[in-house]
Amino acid sequence: MSANWIVDNFSIPVCGVDDVACLTSPSDSSVQYGDIDILNLHFHANSEHTQRGRPYGAEAHLVVNVTTNGISHLVVFGTWMDVKAGTGTTNDFLTDLQPYIDKSSGTGCTPVQYDVKLYVDLPLDSEEHKGNWQPGLFPLDKEYFAYRGSLTTPPCAEDVTWIVFTHPLSINQLKTLYRANAYTSQPCGRPTTNQLCNVLGARTNNRIVQPSKDRPIYIGSVSAW
Questions:
Q1: What domains appear along the chain, each with residue ranges and CATH number?
Q2: pTM (2 decimals)?
């Protein structure tokens, strides 16, 4: 989805010239913070990353560009989504985007005709929270896995920094993502390596799990991005 994104206080640490997210630099390295430019938001159902071999129902990808020292870097934030993660709640962020999700064919970006506020970080005991605020695109607990990988859609270019949150959002809007993301309405047959089914019997739009090729995977946590 393309939109006019409202981005406040959202930056990424960069060490040295091009160590985005400071994954490989020593702890005493100098750090600068690169502002992000949001390129698009899209969804995969089922999820493209798995945890202990298990996929989640869906995965949101926020694709951003970070420019430091005149060099552009791609960073993708991944958020797992699943009704099995909890009781399942209505996600306010997805509710706002629902009309555009319903119009999506799964083959391209659907323009959103208004400004989009990406997420709100409020303390659970704040007056604004009042016990009924639901998470936005990112989970409240921002523990994450990070690694250097590639895009999951053609041309599958390398040199992408992935930041995948370890805690899935519990949502009750999973079926709407399945309907929007299935790139064909025809039921698929027996699942194979390149033809997987979701719970509605339609083909999914997730890339199959790739070998890690000895890439290190880091784990970290921040209070907010």
A1: 2-222 (3.10.200.10)
A2: 0.80
